[in-house]
Amino acid sequence: MITPEFRAGDRAGDNGAVPIETPEELRGALVQQGYLADDGVATAAYLALSMRRPLFLEGDAGVGKTALAQALAGMIDAPLIRLQCYEGIDATQALYDWDFPRQLLHLRAAEAAHRADDVAALEGELYSRRFLVARPLLQAIETNPSVLLVDEVDRADDEFEAFLLEVLSDFTVTVPELGTIRAERPPVVVVTSNRTREVHDALKRRCLYHWVEHPSFEREVAIVRARYPQATQALAESVTGAVQRLRRADLLKPPGVAETLDWTQALLALGAETLDADTATRTLGAVLKYREDHERVARTGLGEALEAAGGA
Amino acid sequence: MPNDAVSVVVGLAHTLRAAGVAASPDRVHATFGALAQLDAASRQDVYWAGRLTLCASRDEIERYDQVFAAYFGDRPAALVRRPVVPAAQLRLVAADEAPAADDGEEDDEDSASAAAAASATEVLRHRDIATLDSTERSLLARLLAAFALPGERRTTRRLAPAPRGFVDRRRTLLRLMHAGGEPAELARRHRRRRPRRVVLLVDISGSMSSYADALLRFAHAASHRSPNSQGRGPVTEVFTLGTRLTRVTREMAHRDADAALLGVAAAVPDWSGGTRLGDLVKRFLDEWGQRGMARGAVVVVLSDGWERGDATLLSEQMARLHRLAHRVVWSNPRAGRAGFAPLAAGMAAALPHVDTFVSGHSLAALERLAAIVAGAREGRPTYA
Predict the structure, then answer these.
(1) Minimal Cα–Cα distance from B21 to chain A, Å?
(2) Is the Cβ of B33 closer than 8 Å to some Cβ of chain A?
(3) How far is residue B360's CA from residue B334's CA, in Å, rounded to a whole number?
(4) Strand, helix or coil for residue A74
(5) 8 A C-beta contact, residue A81 and residue A191
(6) pTM of the predicted model as reported, rounded to 2 decimal places
(7) What is the spatial distance between Cα B208 and Cα A165, in angstroms, rounded to a whole number?
(8) How far is B59 from chain A (nearest CA, A)?
(9) Does B78 touch chain A (CB under 8 A)?
(10) Is the Cα torsion angle A111, A113, A119, A125 positive or negative in sign?
(11) What is the pLDDT, as a whole number, of residue B289?
(12) Sequence-distant (≥ 6) Cβ neighbours of residue B108 within 8 angstroms
């Protein structure tokens, strides 16, 4: 009924790659980057690229929100520009800042060379591009193509959100002394949030919203195997099984995919071939990060989790 | 796009709105954009196009899934609309109040008997809410509307110009440049102070039924009148504790208290049931609190501490809440009664993990609660 337009294609086409025409093909391209996407993530990413809309990702910690941005950057062979949000972040840290010490030095140098008479020219020099320090948002606007990752936007305060909204809606930056800088082609934008607070609707409306779920057992095993090819299928399965069981075990901090990978890495470092009670106890710190969780698992019996994993 | 496809999508959006998902027109527009990129003949693609553009939170995704299934004929269409919640509690209150058409006359009466009303107000301030009749309740509702509940102030990471404080490098250098590089006065800035987030957990179980309406009105006023709602701090979060935990912050956002409470009634499936406080506090912490909502916040539990479940769980969870929050305040309406002792098992278990324990049975008691939430430092000059 509707013939899709493949704008995602020409982006990939820039780099000599085959145009991507369906979410399924995008999934394939992400696999090459070591990111195994499910239907939802693949469709979301496909639409983000083809509609040129920012992608707003929410989900539990460690489900691979940040990793998706990295994989997308790898896929379109563009630099990943990361803006980590924190409370109190403002335009001078996110957008641009003037390099005051250098401007001052320049001023002194001009004075010493007795060039200070031509005030207009001197001012023009002072407020030229070379004294402008580009912060992540400006970098992303100036770099084409690029992937902009606005990480943990929920950590920033609402003033910053309003400011971000302005930049994300038209991808232009106006520096009063210099003029307007416009993105030739807007960067691919991935915004992540851990949902510590509700991000304003206006910002979400500009974006495609996706809630990232924990992966299924098969997918998670595949993720482990893709990241650590030296891990045997048996090890990957037993670790994944145990983690998925822990995830259901009512813990303060259910382990994410990141923890599965950490645990596998820890076991590989110990040279373990399978997950047994002894190695599991020694490496449990890679998965559980709360004392209460350790106690709970010790109470309910770690063996139980492992047995079920072995059976899975 | 063929017309019928357009009407199908618009119809879906309408149904979603009926189910409480704010599928605004610009979002629907984005759905068409998404469909243009995908295969509109594929059920799966239509599903994702709608979900990615129309939803804005995890709760909305849940509703979307139900609506989508019903709309495209997997399930009986009855599921589409949110089950009509009778809102018995609210009906009662609405009927108790003078009908809207009478408002004008009522105002006249008010001015005629202003003196009488003033003294009635004073008496009302100290009366136990549970013992009020319907006229007194509607007066109380009006008094409650004047409440504000700003959180205690905290120092933020954001800096603002100030007469004294750290040296503001940027502004100092600007001044230097204006002076052609000659030493100029140092510009300074300091850390700004803002109110902390306030989280209200309102018990609406059976044992609290005579207070629930007043406390929710209090919560409504608190989330509107406080400086928090004017962009100067985080929004006051409101949850109800019944047989399950329901977040009603969004419903509370309605400016009109009666409309907001009707919204709450529709969102809350469990008026006047029993409470398992421990479970609910745990749910709050798992889903919201630990992620950040309770961190550094002033958390107020408005409950009589009547625990149907295991008191040890409540004790554990209150300890956890206490570690996350800046301050935990427990307001118990029963505490205002003569001879009160925290004997309810839940109350006794929670008490060691509560910073401040206050009563909450009357207007005066709620005023005190508000003062405590605002912190002892409130009243000093602030620079925000």
Answers:
(1) 12
(2) yes
(3) 8
(4) helix
(5) no
(6) 0.70
(7) 43
(8) 10
(9) no
(10) negative
(11) 85
(12) none
Residue of chain A whose alpha carbon sits nearest to that of B156:
A88
Cβ atoms of residues A165 and A191 within 8 Å: no
Residue A172 C-alpha from the chain's centroid: 22
Q: Write the residue in A88, A205, A211 that is nearest to B26 by C-beta.
A: A205
CA distance B139 to chain A (A): 34
Using alpha carbons, select from B241, B188, B186, B180 the residue that is nearest to residue B216. B241
In a mutational test of the B interface, the residue from A1, A50, A58 whose CB has the highest number of chain B CBs within 10 Å is A1
Do residues B138 and B129 make contact, with C-beta atoms less than 8 angstroms apart? no
Contact at 8 Å (CB) between B202 and B238? Answer: yes
Give the per-residue pLDDT at B128: 75
Residue in A with minimal Cα distance to B233? A158
Chain A within 8 Å of B222 (Cβ-Cβ)?
no
- For residue B52, give both structure tokens: 């990615």
**A65-70 average pLDDT score:** 92
Tell if the CB–CB gap between A196 and B292 is shorter than 8 Å: yes
Q: What is the pLDDT of residue B233?
A: 61
Supply the DSSP symbol for B73: T
Dihedral angle sign, alpha carbons of residues B221, B226, B229, B235: negative
pLDDT at A229 over 70: yes
Rounded Cα distance between A246 and B186, Å, is 56
Cβ–Cβ below 8 Å for A205 and B27? yes
Q: Are strands B237-241 and B198-203 parallel, antiparallel or unpaired?
A: parallel
Give the span between the Cα atoms of A216 and A240, in whole angstroms: 10
Structural tokens at position B33: 């954009």
Measured between beta carbons, which residues in chain B are less than 8 angstroms from residue A194? 291-292
Tokens at A263, concatenated: 């645990």
- pLDDT score at B225: 61
> How many beta carbons lie within 10 A of that of residue B73, not counting itself?
8
Q: For B140-149, b where at least 16 C-beta lie within 10 A, e where not — what string?
A: bbebbeebbb
Averaged pLDDT score across all residues of chain A: 84
Nearest CA-CA partner of B160 in B168, B152, B172: B168
Packing angle between helix B103-112 and helix B114-126, nearest 10 degrees? 90
B230 vs A11: CA distance, rounded Å? 43
Give residue B64's identity as a one-letter amino acid code.
Y
Determine, for residues B181 and A2 on separate chains, whether the beta-carbon distance falls below 8 Å.
Answer: no
Q: How far is CA A217 from the centre of its chain?
A: 23
Pairing of strands B245-247, B237-241: antiparallel
Q: B153 - beta bridge partners?
A: B195
Q: What would the two tokens of residue B161 be?
A: 């110009």
Task: Provide the residue-wise pLDDT of chain B in tens; the chain has 384 residues.
Answer: 566 778 888 888 988 888 878 788 888 989 988 888 888 888 888 899 999 999 888 888 888 988 888 888 754 433 333 334 443 333 333 334 444 444 444 444 444 455 555 566 666 677 777 777 777 777 777 777 767 777 777 877 778 888 888 888 778 877 877 776 677 788 888 888 888 888 999 988 888 888 888 888 888 888 776 554 444 567 788 999 888 888 888 888 888 888 888 888 888 777 767 778 888 999 999 888 887 888 888 999 998 888 877 888 899 899 999 988 988 999 888 877 766 776 677 888 888 899 888 888 888 888 888 888 877 443 333 333
Residue A158 to residue B2, Cβ atoms within 8 A: no
CA B138, B139, B140, B142 torsion: positive or negative? positive
Give the residue among B84, B87, B66, B88 at the shortest CA–CA distance from B75.
B66
Alpha carbon dihedral A122, A126, A128, A133, in 10-degree steps, equals 170
Q: Which residues have a Cβ under 8 Å from the Cβ of A220 and sit 6 or more positions away?
A: A214, A240, A243, A244, A257, A260
